[in-house]
């Protein structure tokens, strides 16, 4: 099948997102999630890898756009334009903005939307971002979906100049969001919802070793960020995508520390972060899908650099899964009602992990390595586990510790799923 969602290679910019760590407290299992006054509009942000058959996520977008009356505008400006796609003439192989837009529009119709249309903006049609005709098209929509690729292309097509002012089309989408529309996106389409210091690329090891830099770089391993950010739809934290699949926890922690953010939402593939009241101080969050969302909390974290290298102490890692809810204002998490608090009984050692950030250099590496070690620790009576980077010279050791107040919540099989408040440290070795 053609790569309809844009480049799938590991270095794609779309997956970048900085994570900010935060202490997350658990509510008693029987306690209802507090509610806040509802404000119009919502976000459905997917960490990339959205499968065509994920009716749970597609259905949520369509429901929030009006159900059977939903009209979805599909924006795929993060893809290469037709002029740069050598397979543009082949409907089975093409992977450009136009054919990706048509592909997603068809998917939304298959999942029950009344209508879905490609919004014709890309690097070949930048002028359309200020077109009366395209603004009129946007104003007919009840929801929007931003596809994957390279989020910097969204910056260059829908934002104007160094000050990143809105194009007329983006201003119209922003106004629709304020009046109740849903704005969704996957991979780069989720990343672009970020505000200041949106990540623009990089790998975890190089980020830990070298730190972050302002800009967008041809070297895909270099940790970069855009100070003025993306569209700023989400207020309460930075965003990263493809987190576990590409081992991006390390780069997220480094970027958050470097740019003085204290929370990051680290989105995993085929799973959505659903945000009500976006852009307010009362953002209310839920998780939808088969994987999860890590919330990284740096409120009490301390970073420093010595001749040995960079280190970070006392960050917190929480991992939310399907049905869990979170209140950004109070930093409070509420596990889904069908989950039970886990009582660990296993006394065996935590399995060794010598590639905690799933290095692209390791041919035998496994995705979701950081999450795996965190869950293995949660399942055991032990209070501490360490894991290392695949790279050495310097290498880095990650230490996970169960502090007072840490809790884990299990599914019906009794295995750890949701983790709340695990302490994280990173140090050179």
Question: What are the SSEs and their pairings?
Answer:
Blueprint: E1 25-26, E2 42-46, H1 55-64, E3 71-75, H2 97-110, E4 115-118, H3 132-139, E5 143-146, H4 151-158, E6 159-160, E7 165-166, H5 168-178, E8 182-186, H6 188-191, E9 198-201, H7 204-210, E10 213-214, E11 224-226, E12 238-240, H8 243-246, H9 249-259, E13 263-267, E14 272-276, E15 284-288, E16 292-297, E17 302-306, E18 309-321, E19 325-327, E20 332-334, E21 340-341, H10 369-378, E22 384-388, E23 396-401, E24 407-410, E25 416-428
Parallel strand pairs: 1-20, 2-8, 3-4, 3-5, 5-8, 10-11, 12-13
Antiparallel strand pairs: 2-14, 6-7, 9-11, 13-16, 14-15, 15-19, 16-18, 17-18, 18-25, 19-20, 21-24, 22-23, 23-25, 24-25
Structure characteristics:
globular, Rossmann fold, alpha/beta, 10-stranded mixed beta sheet, single chain, 2 domains, 429 residues
Report on this model:
With about 425 residues, the chain is α/β, with parallel strands linked by helices. The protein has 2 domains: about 15-335, Class I glutamine amidotransferase (GATase) domain (Rossmann fold, 3-Layer(aba) Sandwich); about 340-429, no CATH class. The longest helix has 14 residues, at about 95-110. A 10-stranded mixed beta sheet has the order 1-20-19-15-14-2-8-5-3-4. Strands 12, 13, 16, 17, 18, 21, 22, 23, 24 and 25 form a 10-stranded mixed beta sheet that branches. Strands 9-11-10 form a 3-stranded mixed beta sheet, with no helix packed on it. It has helices spanning about 55-65, 95-110, 130-140, 150-160, 170-180, 190, 205-210, 245, 250-260, 370-380; strands at about 25, 40-45, 70-75, 115-120, 145, 160, 165, 180-185, 200, 215, 225, 240, 265, 270-275, 285-290, 290-295, 300-305, 310-320, 325, 330-335, 340, 385-390, 395-400, 405-410, 415-429. The radius of gyration is 21 Å and the shape is globular. Helix 3 runs parallel beside helix 5 and helix 7 (about 205-210) packs parallel to helix 9. The relative contact order is 0.16.
């Amino acid at each position: 099948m053609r790569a309809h969602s844009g480049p799938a290679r590991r270095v794609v910019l779309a997956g970048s997102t900085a994570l900010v760590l935060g202490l997350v407290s658990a509510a008693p299992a029987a306690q209802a999630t507090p509610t806040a006054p509802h404000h119009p509009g919502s976000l459905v942000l997917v960490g990339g890898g959205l499968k065509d058959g994920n009716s749970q996520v597609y259905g949520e977008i369509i429901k929030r756009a009006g159900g059977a009356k939903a009209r979805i505008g599909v924006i795929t400006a993060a893809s290469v334009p037709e002029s740069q796609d050598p397979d543009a003439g082949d409907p089975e192989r093409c992977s450009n903005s136009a054919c990706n837009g048509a592909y997603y529009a068809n998917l939304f119709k298959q999942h029950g939307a009344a209508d879905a249309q490609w919004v014709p903006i890309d690097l070949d049609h930048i002028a359309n971002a200020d077109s009366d005709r395209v603004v009129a098209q946007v104003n007919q929509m009840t929801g929007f979906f931003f596809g994957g690729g390279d989020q910097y292309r969204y910056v260059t097509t829908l934002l104007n100049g160094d000050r990143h002012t809105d194009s007329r089309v983006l201003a119209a989408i922003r106004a629709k969001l304020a009046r109740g529309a849903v704005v969704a996106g996957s991979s780069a389409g989720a990343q672009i919802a970020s505000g200041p210091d949106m990540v623009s690329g990089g790998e975890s090891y190089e980020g830990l070793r070298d730190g972050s830099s302002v800009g967008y770089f041809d070297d895909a391993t270099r940790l970069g960020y855009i100070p003025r950010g993306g569209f700023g739809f989400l207020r309460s934290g930075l965003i990263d995508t493809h987190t576990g699949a590409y081992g991006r926890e390390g780069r997220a922690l480094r970027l958050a520390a470097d740019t003085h953010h204290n929370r990051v939402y680290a989105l995993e593939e085929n799973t959505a972060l659903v945000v009500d009241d976006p852009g307010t101080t009362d953002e209310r969050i839920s998780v939808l899908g088969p994987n999860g969302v890590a919330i990284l909390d740096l409120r009490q974290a301390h970073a420093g650099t010595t001749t040995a290298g960079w280190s970070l102490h006392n960050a917190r890692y929480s991992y939310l899964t399907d049905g869990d809810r979170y209140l950004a204002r109070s930093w409070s998490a509420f596990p889904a009602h069908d989950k039970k608090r886990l009582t660990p009984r296993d006394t065996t050692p935590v399995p060794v992990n010598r590639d905690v950030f799933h290095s692209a250099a390791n041919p035998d590496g496994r995705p979701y390595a950081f999450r795996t070690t965190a869950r293995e620790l949660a399942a055991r009576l032990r209070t501490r586990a360490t894991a290392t980077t695949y790279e050495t010279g310097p290498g880095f050791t990650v230490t996970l510790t169960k502090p007072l107040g840490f809790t884990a919540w299990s599914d019906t099989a009794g295995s750890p799923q949701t983790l709340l408040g695990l302490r994280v440290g990173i140090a050179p070795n």
